[in-house]
Specification:
By secondary structure, the chain is α/β, with parallel strands linked by helices. It is built from ten helices and six strands. Strand 5, helix 8 and strand 6 (about 195-200) form a beta-alpha-beta unit. The chain is globular, with a radius of gyration of 16 Å. This is Alpha/beta hydrolase.
Length: about 220
Amino acid sequence: MKIILLPGLDGTGYLFKNLMKELPSTLSVEVISYSSISSLSYYGQAQEIATLHSDEDVLIVGESYSGRVAYELCHLLGERVKGLVFLASFVSKPSIYSRLASIVPISFLRPNFITRLLVYIVGFNMSGGIQLVSPVFHSLGHTDNKKLKERLRNIARLDKPTKRITCPVTYISPSKDLLIASRSVHYLASLCSNFTKIEVLGGHFIAQSNPVACAKAITNAANM
């Protein structure tokens, strides 16, 4: 079985670096980069990824932005999907803060004192040290601005999915997530036949602020 890591808003997969270090070397892991995917829609991105993994069993891990991609991919691959892990993921309607993000100019995502502080507050709940913010801006600096803007729009336009999920689902919920509304997590749970919620200390960027706990949850899901 292969573990597929779907990245957050940056789409590079670069921010999985510390998480990868914590995953056992015995696991087969592939990090997806959206730079090689042409589609800008959630469903289109899932379709392109599905063509690469139609003949193998997978565990899908969706981080933040990629929550809906993971959901769509799960239904495209069907019984090939042995489990889903959501890392503070957008699957249905986001919080008001996330909806407003779609109208923020891309220039606002460039590193300066104010943006670094905001990311540290919103993304990391001001824990772990502000040095955690630097890799975020580094990865955003390697992201196509047009694609980045479209991802923000995708999040803002999210609707409520209706298809049920029959494989085991693990949702890693940060202890303080300002971007994912709790009602969204509850709604996702209502669609699942087998749903486990794990609260992990940290903010929205949970795979970066607490990679050890996230790696443990992913490993447990892979061994189910």
